[in-house]
Design goal:
The complex is a heterodimer of chains A (112) and B (117). Chain A is an all-beta fold. Chain A has no helices and twelve strands. Chain A has strands at 3-6, 10-14, 19-21, 23-26, 32-38, 44-50, 56-58, 64-68, 73-78, 87-94, 100-102, 106-111. The N and C termini of chain A lie far apart (41 Å). By secondary structure, chain B is mostly beta strands. In chain B, the strands form two sheets. In chain B, strands 2, 4, 5, 6, 9, 10 and 11 form a seven-stranded mixed sheet that branches. Chain B has a four-stranded antiparallel sheet with strand order 1-3-8-7, with no helix packed on it. The N and C termini of chain B lie far apart (37 Å). Classes of the chains: A mainly beta (112), B mainly beta (117). The A-B interface holds A 32, 34, 36, 41-44, 46, 49, 51, 90, 94, 98-105 and B 32, 34, 42-46, 49, 93, 95, 97, 99, 102-106, 108-111, 113.
Chain lengths: 112, 117
């Protein structure tokens, strides 16, 4: 069984400052990990994924995440937040059966 | 990238009626699809796994007679909410994995907003 814990339910940042969204995972297998973003009343968009290749993963829109096995973490970062980054972010782990387990989500607000 | 569509994007129905939601993989075949529901300001909860050619498997606590799933072809899965009630109002999302030796990414449909009056 696998699970993820998103450590922050809400993150508020000023435009142009760094964003950090924290995620810890639990998995019996070598996990595949994903970060998705969801804008209000919209579907999910994949930001980036880790599938046992490079531990530092670069995604779209300037986001990146680092897989740290020793810390069972997969934190998402962006060096400079933009107003359009305001959304809900989900950390997700996939098992061998392709079933996805979602974190509770982190709401990001960006202050002008 | 692979595309998954859902139809309808939103539906409003009266209590007691049944509603069918379609999930299609447009440019790839999917022997497995997944159905989720999402309540406002909450995360996605996996409801069931739709299997082409066999019965769907439901997560614990999901009523299989309430949420009928049919995987009619390699590109189509349908979710029917039977005898819908206001508590079934939710955002329903499907996904399909693009299988491969180095890829287990899933592609999500845009979701269907169900409102039961």
């Amino acid at each position: 069984a696998q699970s993820v814990t998103q450590l922050d339910s809400h993150v508020s940042v000023s435009e142009g400052t760094p964003v950090l969204l924290r995620c810890n995972y639990s998995s019996s297998y070598s996990p595949s990990l994903f970060w998705y973003v969801q804008h209000p009343n919209k579907g999910l968009q994949l930001l980036l994924k880790y599938t046992s290749a490079a531990t530092l993963v670069k995604g779209i829109n300037g986001f990146e995440a680092e897989f740290k096995k020793s810390e069972t973490s997969f934190h998402l970062t962006k060096p400079s937040a933009h107003m359009s980054d305001a959304a809900e972010y989900f950390c997700v782990v996939s098992g061998d059966d392709y079933k996805l387990s979602f974190g509770a989500g982190t709401t990001v607000t960006v202050r002008a | 990238g692979a595309v998954v569509s859902q139809h309808p994007s939103w539906v409003i129905c009266k209590s007691g009626t049944s509603v069918k939601i379609e999930c299609r993989s447009l440019d790839f075949q999917a022997t497995t699809m997944f159905w989720y529901r999402q309540f406002p300001k909450q995360s996605l909860m996996l409801m069931a796994t739709s299997n082409e050619g066999s019965k769907a498997t439901y997560e614990q606590g999901v009523e299989k007679d309430k949420f009928l799933i049919n995987h009619a072809s390699l590109t189509l899965s349908t979710l029917t909410v039977t005898s819908a009630h206001p508590e079934d109002s939710s955002f329903y999302i499907c996904s399909a994995p693009l299988r491969g030796p180095e890829n287990n990414e899933q592609f999500f449909g845009p979701g269907t907003r169900l409102t039961v009056l």
